[in-house]
Amino acid sequence: MHRITGRAGGDSLIEMSPTDSFNDDINDYNQHSSTGTGYLQQDQPEIDKQQQSKDSVFFRDGVRRIDFVLSYVDEKEGDRKQEEKRKIYEANLVKVGLELETEDKSESDDGKTYFVKIHAPWEVLATYADVLKIKVPFKANDIPDNKEIPMNWLSTPFRLPEHIMHPEPDYFTAPFNKSKSDFYLIDDKDTFFPPSTRNRIVYYILSRCSYVRDECVDRDKKGIKRLLNNGAYTAAFPLHDCRYWKRSSYANCESERYDLHKYWASFCCFFKEQPLNLIRKYYGEKIGIYFAWLGFYTEMLLFAAVVGTLCFVYGLLTYDENEWSKEICREDIGGKIVMCPLCDKKCGYWKLNSTCNSSWQSHLFDNVGTVFFAIFMGIWVTLFLEFWKRRQARLEYEWDLVDFEEEQQQLQLRPEYETKCTNRKLNRITQEMEPYLPITSKCARTCLSGATVIFWISLIIACIIGVIAYRLAVYAAFASIMKDSPTSQLHVVGPYITPQLATSVTASCINFIIIMILNLMYERVAIWITDMEIPKTHLEYENKLTVKMFLFQFVNYYSSCFYVAFFKGKFVGYPGNYAYMFGSKLRNEECDPGGCLIELTTQLVIVMTGKQVWGNIQEALVPWLMNWWGSRKARCHPESLYSRWEQDHDLQPFGQLGLFQEYLEMVIQFGFITLFVASFPLAPLLALFNNIIEVRVDAWKLTTQFRRPVAAKAHSIGAWEEILNGMAVLSVVTNAFIVAFTSDMIPRLVYMYAYQPDGQMNMKGYIDNSLSMFNISAIPLDNRPDDEENPPWFNSSITICRYRDYRYPPGHEKEYHHTMQFWHILAAKLAFIIIMEHVVFVVKFFVAWMIPDVPSDVKARVKRERYLVQEYLHNYEVEKLKIQLSKNCDDCTCTPMIYPSLPKHEVLSECL
Predict the structure, then answer these.
(1) Higher pLDDT among residues 708 and 5, named by residue
(2) Cβ neighbours of residue 579 under 8 Å, at least 6 residues apart?
(3) CB-hemisphere CA count at 13 Å for 307?
């Protein structure tokens, strides 16, 4: 083992790449590395590793906390290039002020990994806290909390202990200023900045430190990301504070990871509230805001799930009142109606009662409750978004994020942006020269990015068209295989599978597999495109990546549902004049006489449920297996030899897309339960069950399977909020069209109110009214089924077949033209769409107007805090001035000559 530590203080902490006396620093660094003595820290006590607890998060002196760890493997003998990069980089870190300590590979569990432990002393933390404008406490919050929750005792079973929910007192905070350090509540400099803030500051330094001798020559040769990419280091991560199943044995270590695992990640706590303040304190605001949003979304899903379940129960209770299904199943009605073939050559004639089961199943989702639920979800999504804005505003205040966006945009440029943009211009806000991307280069990159996005979206659409072609091709095969099924099975609710159902299920499964395969490709493409655009800030980078990935996923997941909902069965034609796909021999699909809604339901259930089940298995199982395999050698070592940094090194890295993928998964789910919810009222219930598990799975992964992420700030969910707003508006339109064109609700209502022959308000005779007639002898030879495809009961005495449409019968003067009922139904559908959209949008805008985005008490507290910050800073400056003037007056010998008649304390008053 050899230990290298370093310290440099003073006011030059922001100089990232030393050029003066650089060779002397490297020589000192090499000298102390080879001798194993402390670099500028030779008086620190040594502690034998066997005596160190495996929970230790400190240097060997047991005092200085480890804020970050770098690891590397020096397998290639003579690979001096990587070694030189590391030496220069670490020397630069020491020059900046960080302290380093290296663990030799001989003491690692695999015998080949070096660990460089990094500690940030007070001078470094104070300087960069000033640079990053990190808010710190200066006064205890004295505003009384008058919130009184009625029936508060009812929530007792769902609460967590107070020390878990609120792990630290509430303070007024202000941006840190190093020159005014005595203004803040600093009891202990070692614990003033929490570990999450410390690792955020250290990572900021690591991202901007150079690894070349002369930065002016190689401007892009800096940052830990590039060193990780080129293999100089294998990992860079902050440490967890303890093992997740046991508290730390160190009195000055927090053991917050243990508390999070016990009270948050445990599946036994699925009904408990989330300790958001502790999550924020341990992982940072960015991860905290995600779990706050996920928890709020899950709570709101409870209301949608209850209403959706009631609508489904209504369908069950009205099961026996379904008159049109009874007519389909009756032998004297549906059993005597001969239907025209559903495909050319391989499909024979069939009787209407063969769709008895699908008709009953369709009624469960296609009833009057469907319309009510579609309207309800349009209002629910508005309430969800508006109440989330209020919740988010409260978190912004409580977590000191009110002014964060401006700081993010102005101060924290991406290291990649700084290195790739060689041009400089004056920033009008900061009045400093900063890098910028020329407008010509920016336009060229944007155009190339847009073209790439369009190409990949076109590829998705091509895959969907391929699935549609599969549906058209295999339907004939299924129809031919199932033509001999006995009709007696068609009246019994059992395992009988129709060609329509077989085609729909297999196509949905194939589509799901294609979706999963394409997802692996899209992630790489989206990252490459976004990197090529060179976004300026981390926030801009994430927003650009978010938009691209969502566009890909939107088309990927929803294309098949849009096809079934809005295209299938809409452009079929009629016997003798069928429509074909792109002029091919594949005839467009028809809807089942029971309607296309049941097929949309099948598609939605398979894709949505499959995605959620596969996602949870993948999220939980894959990192666990990888960690189990990666730590197999360490399991044979004693606990005292398996240090905290080695344990964390064996965990999975929480990459830059870790949280992004979680958001994307939930937003895609949000689309399923809003865009197509009219076809499946139980979708919110499935989403609720999934999210209850999702919260705990994500918590379990973070606390047990992943390295501790670098703490990051975020004042909102970012671009996802705008995406959710857009989907909320689109959902009103899609559900209105589903009810109007995919469901049979409007044709039934038009028949009942305008075309019922007896003038009674019932559905008797609807099936006969909704089917048109065609003369079998007029069917072209290319469309007629082969003789062997026709069922045994079919004979030459059957001259008329029926099909789903509203056209005049053979022999009429307008033979096979649309009837007036068709146009009345179309007008009713368009009127319904307009009325439903206007009603829902009016209610949405009214609700949004009635509910302010920021609660009034939060506005008052923000103003109060700003006022107090100004007042206390003013008083602080006045006190300092008094002290300074008092000192000057004590030292001044000419004061009595200026104020000869005044005592000294009045002289001071006059000076002020």
Answers:
(1) 708
(2) 571, 572, 573, 587, 588
(3) 19
Whether pLDDT at 774 is above 90: yes
Helix (H) / strand (E) containing 191 = helix 189-192
- Whether this prediction's pTM lies above 0.70 is answered by yes
The tens digit of pLDDT for each residue in 469-516 reads 888 778 767 766 765 543 333 333 334 466 777 777 888 788 888 888
Whether 548 and 526 have beta carbons less than 8 Å apart is answered as yes
Do 733 and 688 belong together in one domain? Answer: yes
pLDDT value for 502: 78
Using alpha carbons, select from 377, 274, 327, 307 the residue that is nearest to residue 672. 377
Give me the pLDDT at residue 889, please: 66
If DSSP states are collapsed to H, E and C, what string results for 847-876? HHHHCCCCCHHHHHHHHHHHHHHHHHHHHH
Are 117 and 151 part of one and the same domain? Answer: no
Among the candidates 746, 779, 795, a domain finishes at 746
Report the number of distinct structural domains present in the chain.
4
Quickly state the pLDDT bin for 288 (edges 50, 70, 90). Answer: very high
CA 349 to chain centre: 50
322 phi, psi to nearest 5 deg: -80, 90
Amino acid at 368: V
pLDDT at residue 681 is higher than 50: yes
Contact between 819 and 806 under an 8 Å Cβ cutoff? The reply is yes
Cross-strand partners of 175: 135
Phi-psi region of 566 (alpha: psi -120 to 50; beta: other; left: phi over 0): alpha
Q: Which helix H or strand E contains 787, and what residues bound it?
A: none
Does the pLDDT value for residue 204 go beyond 50? yes
Please write the tens of the pLDDT for every residue from 221-265: 788 988 888 888 999 999 998 888 888 877 778 889 999 999 999
| Contact yes or no for 272/299 (Cβ under 8 A) | no
Domain membership of residue 31 as a residue range: 1-133+193-239
- What value does the mean pLDDT of the chain take? 81
Q: Are residues 350 and 223 in the same domain?
A: no
Residue 572 lies in a domain: yes
- Residues 384, 400, single domain; the answer is yes
